[in-house]
Fold this protein.
Amino acid sequence: VMDNSSATSGPGVGNPTVPACPGCVIKYSFLGYTDAGGFSSIPKSIPVTDGPVNTCNTGSTITIDGTNNYLWVPITGPDGNILAEINAQGQNLGVVTSSFYKNSGAIRVNGGVHYLDRNIKITPTVTTFAIPVKIRLYISKAEYTALAADPLSGISSITQLKVLKNSDPCGSTMTTPTTLLTPTNTLLADLQQGANAYVLQVSVPGFSSFYFGANNSTLPLELLSFTGSLQNNFTTLLNWKTINEVKTSRFIIERSIDAQNFNQIGIVAASVNSSSEISYAFQDADVTNQQSLNVFYRLKLIDIDGSYKYSNIVRIALPGTKGIITLSPNPAIDNIRATIISSGECNADWQVIDISGRVLLQNSAPLKKGNNELNINLNKLASGTYYLKIKGTCIDLNTRFQRS
Protein backbone atom coordinates (compact mmCIF):
# COMPACT_ATOMS: atom_id res chain seq x y z
CA VAL A 1 0.00 0.00 0.00
CA MET A 2 1.45 3.33 -1.01
CA ASP A 3 0.58 5.87 1.69
CA ASN A 4 1.58 8.96 -0.28
CA SER A 5 3.66 10.26 2.61
CA SER A 6 7.07 11.80 2.14
CA ALA A 7 8.04 10.70 5.65
CA THR A 8 7.57 6.99 5.01
CA SER A 9 8.16 4.54 2.17
CA GLY A 10 6.50 6.52 -0.63
CA PRO A 11 6.95 7.29 -3.35
CA GLY A 12 4.99 10.41 -2.52
CA VAL A 13 4.71 14.05 -3.42
CA GLY A 14 7.75 14.93 -1.38
CA ASN A 15 9.90 12.08 -2.66
CA PRO A 16 9.37 13.73 -5.29
CA THR A 17 7.57 11.12 -7.46
CA VAL A 18 3.82 11.61 -7.66
CA PRO A 19 2.02 8.27 -7.51
CA ALA A 20 -0.47 7.63 -10.26
CA CYS A 21 -2.84 6.03 -7.83
CA PRO A 22 -2.44 7.24 -4.21
CA GLY A 23 -3.37 4.54 -1.72
CA CYS A 24 -3.47 1.77 -4.37
CA VAL A 25 -1.75 -1.62 -4.09
CA ILE A 26 1.08 -1.63 -6.63
CA LYS A 27 2.67 -4.79 -8.11
CA TYR A 28 6.35 -4.69 -9.06
CA SER A 29 7.76 -7.20 -11.58
CA PHE A 30 11.51 -7.89 -11.57
CA LEU A 31 12.82 -7.44 -15.12
CA GLY A 32 16.57 -8.05 -14.90
CA TYR A 33 19.94 -6.52 -14.15
CA THR A 34 21.83 -3.79 -15.95
CA ASP A 35 25.37 -4.58 -17.02
CA ALA A 36 28.09 -3.38 -14.65
CA GLY A 37 30.74 -2.39 -17.19
CA GLY A 38 31.07 -5.90 -18.57
CA PHE A 39 30.66 -7.57 -15.18
CA SER A 40 27.58 -9.27 -13.83
CA SER A 41 25.51 -7.19 -11.39
CA ILE A 42 24.50 -10.29 -9.44
CA PRO A 43 26.06 -10.00 -5.97
CA LYS A 44 29.20 -12.07 -5.50
CA SER A 45 27.64 -13.56 -2.39
CA ILE A 46 24.98 -15.39 -4.46
CA PRO A 47 26.14 -19.02 -4.90
CA VAL A 48 25.79 -21.16 -8.01
CA THR A 49 22.66 -23.30 -7.97
CA ASP A 50 22.92 -26.83 -6.65
CA GLY A 51 20.71 -29.88 -6.89
CA PRO A 52 20.63 -33.67 -6.75
CA VAL A 53 23.49 -35.37 -8.64
CA ASN A 54 23.16 -37.67 -11.66
CA THR A 55 19.79 -36.24 -12.61
CA CYS A 56 18.36 -33.33 -14.61
CA ASN A 57 17.29 -30.49 -12.35
CA THR A 58 14.68 -28.01 -13.59
CA GLY A 59 15.66 -24.35 -13.60
CA SER A 60 13.38 -21.35 -13.50
CA THR A 61 11.12 -20.38 -16.40
CA ILE A 62 11.52 -16.78 -17.50
CA THR A 63 10.00 -14.52 -20.16
CA ILE A 64 12.09 -12.18 -22.31
CA ASP A 65 10.03 -9.64 -24.23
CA GLY A 66 9.95 -5.93 -24.96
CA THR A 67 10.08 -5.08 -21.25
CA ASN A 68 13.45 -6.70 -20.52
CA ASN A 69 15.15 -7.76 -23.75
CA TYR A 70 17.88 -5.17 -23.16
CA LEU A 71 18.70 -6.37 -19.63
CA TRP A 72 20.59 -9.34 -18.18
CA VAL A 73 17.75 -11.65 -17.14
CA PRO A 74 18.80 -14.30 -14.58
CA ILE A 75 17.85 -17.98 -14.61
CA THR A 76 17.91 -19.70 -11.25
CA GLY A 77 17.88 -23.27 -10.04
CA PRO A 78 15.37 -24.99 -7.73
CA ASP A 79 17.14 -23.47 -4.71
CA GLY A 80 16.79 -19.92 -6.06
CA ASN A 81 20.53 -19.52 -6.74
CA ILE A 82 22.08 -18.50 -10.03
CA LEU A 83 22.31 -20.84 -13.05
CA ALA A 84 22.65 -18.47 -16.04
CA GLU A 85 21.90 -15.00 -17.39
CA ILE A 86 20.61 -13.97 -20.84
CA ASN A 87 20.96 -10.62 -22.60
CA ALA A 88 18.78 -10.88 -25.72
CA GLN A 89 20.33 -7.80 -27.35
CA GLY A 90 16.91 -6.22 -27.87
CA GLN A 91 15.26 -9.37 -29.26
CA ASN A 92 12.18 -11.11 -27.91
CA LEU A 93 12.82 -14.74 -26.95
CA GLY A 94 9.43 -15.48 -25.42
CA VAL A 95 9.17 -18.07 -22.65
CA VAL A 96 12.55 -19.61 -21.79
CA THR A 97 12.85 -22.93 -19.94
CA SER A 98 16.01 -24.38 -18.44
CA SER A 99 17.57 -27.39 -16.74
CA PHE A 100 20.98 -28.58 -15.62
CA TYR A 101 22.71 -31.90 -14.93
CA LYS A 102 25.25 -32.54 -12.18
CA ASN A 103 27.54 -35.53 -12.66
CA SER A 104 28.93 -37.42 -9.68
CA GLY A 105 31.87 -39.78 -10.05
CA ALA A 106 34.70 -39.89 -12.58
CA ILE A 107 35.17 -36.98 -14.97
CA ARG A 108 33.14 -37.63 -18.11
CA VAL A 109 34.86 -38.28 -21.45
CA ASN A 110 33.55 -38.07 -25.01
CA GLY A 111 35.85 -38.98 -27.90
CA GLY A 112 38.93 -38.11 -25.87
CA VAL A 113 37.52 -34.80 -24.55
CA HIS A 114 37.29 -34.63 -20.75
CA TYR A 115 34.51 -32.27 -19.70
CA LEU A 116 33.03 -30.63 -16.59
CA ASP A 117 30.57 -32.28 -14.20
CA ARG A 118 27.86 -29.71 -15.06
CA ASN A 119 25.93 -29.18 -18.30
CA ILE A 120 23.13 -26.67 -18.87
CA LYS A 121 20.14 -26.76 -21.21
CA ILE A 122 18.35 -23.52 -22.21
CA THR A 123 15.32 -23.54 -24.53
CA PRO A 124 13.56 -20.31 -25.68
CA THR A 125 10.31 -20.14 -27.60
CA VAL A 126 11.96 -18.06 -30.32
CA THR A 127 14.92 -19.92 -31.81
CA THR A 128 15.99 -17.66 -34.71
CA PHE A 129 17.90 -14.46 -33.90
CA ALA A 130 18.91 -11.52 -36.07
CA ILE A 131 22.08 -11.07 -34.03
CA PRO A 132 23.81 -13.37 -31.51
CA VAL A 133 22.46 -13.41 -27.98
CA LYS A 134 24.77 -13.01 -24.98
CA ILE A 135 24.65 -15.52 -22.15
CA ARG A 136 26.49 -16.02 -18.88
CA LEU A 137 26.82 -19.57 -17.58
CA TYR A 138 27.71 -20.26 -13.95
CA ILE A 139 29.74 -23.20 -12.60
CA SER A 140 31.06 -23.99 -9.15
CA LYS A 141 34.71 -23.77 -8.21
CA ALA A 142 34.55 -27.40 -6.99
CA GLU A 143 33.44 -28.54 -10.46
CA TYR A 144 36.27 -26.66 -12.12
CA THR A 145 38.84 -27.98 -9.62
CA ALA A 146 37.77 -31.57 -10.28
CA LEU A 147 38.20 -31.11 -14.03
CA ALA A 148 41.57 -29.34 -13.71
CA ALA A 149 42.83 -32.18 -11.50
CA ASP A 150 42.28 -34.63 -14.35
CA PRO A 151 45.68 -34.83 -16.15
CA LEU A 152 43.96 -35.49 -19.50
CA SER A 153 41.56 -32.53 -19.34
CA GLY A 154 43.99 -30.06 -20.96
CA ILE A 155 43.01 -27.53 -18.28
CA SER A 156 45.51 -25.87 -15.97
CA SER A 157 43.83 -22.46 -15.64
CA ILE A 158 40.22 -21.30 -15.56
CA THR A 159 41.03 -19.05 -18.53
CA GLN A 160 41.53 -22.21 -20.66
CA LEU A 161 37.98 -23.42 -20.08
CA LYS A 162 35.72 -23.20 -23.14
CA VAL A 163 31.98 -23.57 -23.68
CA LEU A 164 30.94 -26.51 -25.88
CA LYS A 165 27.51 -26.07 -27.51
CA ASN A 166 25.44 -28.81 -29.14
CA SER A 167 21.86 -30.03 -29.64
CA ASP A 168 21.74 -32.59 -26.82
CA PRO A 169 18.75 -32.88 -24.51
CA CYS A 170 19.51 -32.55 -20.81
CA GLY A 171 21.26 -35.80 -19.88
CA SER A 172 24.21 -37.55 -18.33
CA THR A 173 26.51 -37.70 -21.37
CA MET A 174 27.49 -35.72 -24.44
CA THR A 175 26.04 -37.46 -27.48
CA THR A 176 26.40 -35.13 -30.50
CA PRO A 177 29.26 -33.02 -31.95
CA THR A 178 29.86 -29.65 -30.34
CA THR A 179 30.71 -26.13 -31.43
CA LEU A 180 33.56 -24.53 -29.49
CA LEU A 181 32.82 -21.10 -27.97
CA THR A 182 35.58 -19.01 -26.36
CA PRO A 183 34.43 -16.87 -23.43
CA THR A 184 34.81 -13.11 -23.84
CA ASN A 185 35.45 -12.48 -20.13
CA THR A 186 38.91 -14.04 -20.11
CA LEU A 187 40.49 -12.05 -17.27
CA LEU A 188 40.49 -13.91 -13.99
CA ALA A 189 38.63 -11.08 -12.24
CA ASP A 190 35.90 -11.25 -14.88
CA LEU A 191 35.53 -15.01 -14.47
CA GLN A 192 35.22 -15.09 -10.71
CA GLN A 193 31.78 -15.09 -9.11
CA GLY A 194 32.73 -14.85 -5.47
CA ALA A 195 35.13 -17.28 -3.83
CA ASN A 196 33.39 -20.47 -4.90
CA ALA A 197 32.13 -19.93 -8.44
CA TYR A 198 32.99 -18.85 -11.97
CA VAL A 199 30.96 -17.29 -14.77
CA LEU A 200 31.68 -17.70 -18.50
CA GLN A 201 30.18 -15.25 -21.00
CA VAL A 202 29.72 -16.16 -24.68
CA SER A 203 27.61 -15.05 -27.65
CA VAL A 204 25.41 -17.68 -29.28
CA PRO A 205 23.36 -17.80 -32.51
CA GLY A 206 20.87 -20.10 -30.78
CA PHE A 207 20.24 -22.04 -27.59
CA SER A 208 20.59 -25.71 -26.76
CA SER A 209 22.92 -27.58 -24.39
CA PHE A 210 26.17 -26.22 -23.02
CA TYR A 211 29.10 -28.27 -21.73
CA PHE A 212 32.52 -27.08 -20.52
CA GLY A 213 35.98 -28.33 -21.53
CA ALA A 214 39.26 -27.43 -23.22
CA ASN A 215 38.50 -28.76 -26.70
CA ASN A 216 35.68 -29.55 -29.08
CA SER A 217 33.99 -32.88 -28.74
CA THR A 218 34.94 -35.36 -31.45
CA LEU A 219 32.54 -36.90 -33.91
CA PRO A 220 30.37 -39.88 -33.12
CA LEU A 221 32.41 -41.77 -35.73
CA GLU A 222 34.75 -44.33 -34.18
CA LEU A 223 38.04 -45.04 -35.94
CA LEU A 224 38.81 -48.68 -35.15
CA SER A 225 42.22 -48.76 -36.83
CA PHE A 226 44.51 -46.82 -39.17
CA THR A 227 47.58 -48.61 -40.54
CA GLY A 228 50.00 -48.37 -43.45
CA SER A 229 52.64 -50.44 -45.23
CA LEU A 230 55.14 -49.97 -48.05
CA GLN A 231 54.30 -52.06 -51.12
CA ASN A 232 57.16 -53.16 -53.42
CA ASN A 233 59.33 -50.35 -51.95
CA PHE A 234 57.40 -47.83 -54.09
CA THR A 235 53.83 -47.34 -52.88
CA THR A 236 52.28 -46.76 -49.47
CA LEU A 237 49.04 -48.64 -48.85
CA LEU A 238 46.92 -47.06 -46.11
CA ASN A 239 44.02 -48.95 -44.54
CA TRP A 240 41.47 -47.87 -41.97
CA LYS A 241 38.29 -49.22 -40.43
CA THR A 242 35.39 -47.29 -38.89
CA ILE A 243 32.17 -48.00 -37.07
CA ASN A 244 29.16 -45.84 -36.17
CA GLU A 245 29.48 -43.47 -39.13
CA VAL A 246 26.81 -40.93 -38.24
CA LYS A 247 26.77 -37.86 -40.52
CA THR A 248 30.34 -38.51 -41.67
CA SER A 249 31.29 -36.63 -44.85
CA ARG A 250 34.81 -37.59 -45.96
CA PHE A 251 38.35 -38.54 -45.02
CA ILE A 252 41.29 -36.32 -45.99
CA ILE A 253 44.64 -38.11 -46.23
CA GLU A 254 47.60 -35.99 -45.11
CA ARG A 255 51.35 -36.68 -45.43
CA SER A 256 54.43 -35.26 -43.70
CA ILE A 257 58.18 -35.88 -43.60
CA ASP A 258 58.63 -34.48 -40.07
CA ALA A 259 55.40 -35.57 -38.30
CA GLN A 260 54.65 -31.87 -37.69
CA ASN A 261 53.75 -30.19 -40.99
CA PHE A 262 51.13 -32.16 -42.94
CA ASN A 263 49.85 -31.61 -46.48
CA GLN A 264 46.73 -33.02 -48.09
CA ILE A 265 47.38 -35.73 -50.70
CA GLY A 266 43.95 -37.23 -51.22
CA ILE A 267 40.26 -37.43 -50.27
CA VAL A 268 38.10 -40.51 -49.76
CA ALA A 269 34.33 -40.04 -49.48
CA ALA A 270 32.59 -41.66 -46.52
CA SER A 271 30.28 -44.59 -47.16
CA VAL A 272 26.56 -44.48 -46.50
CA ASN A 273 26.00 -43.75 -42.82
CA SER A 274 25.97 -47.02 -40.97
CA SER A 275 26.57 -48.44 -37.53
CA SER A 276 28.36 -51.42 -39.11
CA GLU A 277 32.13 -51.75 -39.55
CA ILE A 278 33.42 -50.20 -42.80
CA SER A 279 36.87 -50.64 -44.40
CA TYR A 280 38.75 -48.09 -46.51
CA ALA A 281 42.03 -48.02 -48.44
CA PHE A 282 44.21 -45.40 -50.14
CA GLN A 283 47.48 -45.71 -52.12
CA ASP A 284 50.20 -43.08 -52.12
CA ALA A 285 52.21 -43.69 -55.32
CA ASP A 286 54.35 -40.59 -54.73
CA VAL A 287 55.94 -41.65 -51.46
CA THR A 288 59.40 -42.34 -52.89
CA ASN A 289 59.65 -38.78 -54.20
CA GLN A 290 59.73 -37.41 -50.65
CA GLN A 291 63.51 -37.74 -50.23
CA SER A 292 63.21 -38.74 -46.60
CA LEU A 293 64.01 -41.76 -44.47
CA ASN A 294 60.52 -41.61 -42.92
CA VAL A 295 57.11 -40.51 -44.15
CA PHE A 296 54.15 -39.90 -41.83
CA TYR A 297 50.42 -40.10 -42.53
CA ARG A 298 47.25 -39.10 -40.70
CA LEU A 299 43.54 -38.90 -41.49
CA LYS A 300 41.34 -35.85 -41.06
CA LEU A 301 37.83 -37.20 -40.39
CA ILE A 302 35.24 -34.59 -41.34
CA ASP A 303 31.57 -34.48 -40.37
CA ILE A 304 28.89 -33.03 -42.67
CA ASP A 305 28.64 -29.90 -40.49
CA GLY A 306 32.37 -29.21 -40.86
CA SER A 307 33.44 -30.60 -37.49
CA TYR A 308 36.56 -32.75 -37.68
CA LYS A 309 39.12 -34.75 -35.75
CA TYR A 310 42.47 -36.38 -36.56
CA SER A 311 43.52 -40.01 -36.47
CA ASN A 312 46.68 -41.46 -35.02
CA ILE A 313 49.87 -40.88 -37.05
CA VAL A 314 51.30 -43.76 -39.11
CA ARG A 315 55.04 -43.85 -39.84
CA ILE A 316 56.42 -45.50 -42.96
CA ALA A 317 60.18 -46.16 -43.11
CA LEU A 318 61.62 -45.79 -46.61
CA PRO A 319 64.49 -48.07 -47.61
CA GLY A 320 67.81 -46.31 -47.08
CA THR A 321 67.19 -43.10 -48.99
CA LYS A 322 70.47 -41.30 -49.70
CA GLY A 323 71.21 -38.55 -52.20
CA ILE A 324 68.94 -36.44 -54.38
CA ILE A 325 67.54 -37.19 -57.83
CA THR A 326 65.64 -35.08 -60.36
CA LEU A 327 64.05 -36.50 -63.54
CA SER A 328 63.38 -34.53 -66.71
CA PRO A 329 61.32 -34.44 -68.74
CA ASN A 330 58.62 -36.10 -66.69
CA PRO A 331 56.42 -37.29 -68.32
CA ALA A 332 59.03 -38.50 -70.83
CA ILE A 333 58.67 -39.80 -74.38
CA ASP A 334 61.82 -41.54 -75.71
CA ASN A 335 64.51 -40.60 -73.18
CA ILE A 336 64.67 -39.44 -69.60
CA ARG A 337 67.58 -37.68 -67.89
CA ALA A 338 68.26 -38.35 -64.22
CA THR A 339 70.26 -35.61 -62.47
CA ILE A 340 71.79 -37.23 -59.39
CA ILE A 341 73.52 -35.59 -56.43
CA SER A 342 75.62 -38.30 -54.76
CA SER A 343 77.04 -38.15 -51.25
CA GLY A 344 80.23 -39.88 -52.40
CA GLU A 345 81.98 -41.85 -55.14
CA CYS A 346 80.76 -45.37 -55.97
CA ASN A 347 79.40 -47.70 -58.62
CA ALA A 348 75.60 -47.76 -58.61
CA ASP A 349 73.11 -50.20 -60.10
CA TRP A 350 69.94 -48.77 -61.57
CA GLN A 351 66.65 -50.44 -62.51
CA VAL A 352 63.44 -49.34 -64.21
CA ILE A 353 60.53 -51.20 -62.59
CA ASP A 354 56.84 -51.24 -63.49
CA ILE A 355 54.02 -50.85 -60.98
CA SER A 356 53.74 -54.64 -60.55
CA GLY A 357 57.41 -54.85 -59.47
CA ARG A 358 58.92 -56.30 -62.68
CA VAL A 359 62.41 -55.12 -63.64
CA LEU A 360 62.24 -53.99 -67.30
CA LEU A 361 65.54 -52.12 -67.71
CA GLN A 362 68.75 -52.28 -65.69
CA ASN A 363 72.41 -51.33 -65.85
CA SER A 364 75.18 -49.82 -63.72
CA ALA A 365 76.94 -46.47 -63.72
CA PRO A 366 79.92 -44.94 -61.89
CA LEU A 367 79.02 -41.97 -59.73
CA LYS A 368 81.25 -39.20 -58.48
CA LYS A 369 80.60 -37.09 -55.40
CA GLY A 370 78.29 -34.23 -56.32
CA ASN A 371 76.39 -33.85 -59.60
CA ASN A 372 75.94 -36.73 -62.06
CA GLU A 373 73.74 -37.30 -65.09
CA LEU A 374 72.22 -40.57 -66.25
CA ASN A 375 70.39 -40.83 -69.61
CA ILE A 376 67.99 -43.74 -70.10
CA ASN A 377 66.37 -44.77 -73.40
CA LEU A 378 62.68 -45.61 -72.94
CA ASN A 379 61.82 -46.89 -76.43
CA LYS A 380 61.25 -50.44 -75.15
CA LEU A 381 58.68 -49.30 -72.58
CA ALA A 382 54.95 -48.92 -73.13
CA SER A 383 53.16 -45.81 -71.96
CA GLY A 384 52.53 -45.88 -68.23
CA THR A 385 53.95 -45.34 -64.75
CA TYR A 386 57.42 -46.62 -63.78
CA TYR A 387 59.93 -46.38 -60.96
CA LEU A 388 63.65 -45.69 -61.22
CA LYS A 389 65.71 -47.32 -58.48
CA ILE A 390 69.40 -46.44 -58.02
CA LYS A 391 71.44 -48.23 -55.36
CA GLY A 392 75.08 -48.23 -54.38
CA THR A 393 77.30 -47.67 -51.35
CA CYS A 394 76.98 -43.90 -51.80
CA ILE A 395 73.35 -43.72 -52.93
CA ASP A 396 69.97 -45.35 -52.42
CA LEU A 397 67.05 -43.71 -54.22
CA ASN A 398 63.61 -44.58 -55.57
CA THR A 399 61.56 -42.20 -57.69
CA ARG A 400 58.60 -42.37 -60.01
CA PHE A 401 58.14 -41.18 -63.62
CA GLN A 402 55.65 -41.36 -66.44
CA ARG A 403 56.23 -42.42 -70.04
CA SER A 404 53.76 -40.84 -72.49
About this structure: The first helix runs from residue 141 to 148. The longest strand covers residues 222-231. DSSP finds two helices and 28 strands in the chain.
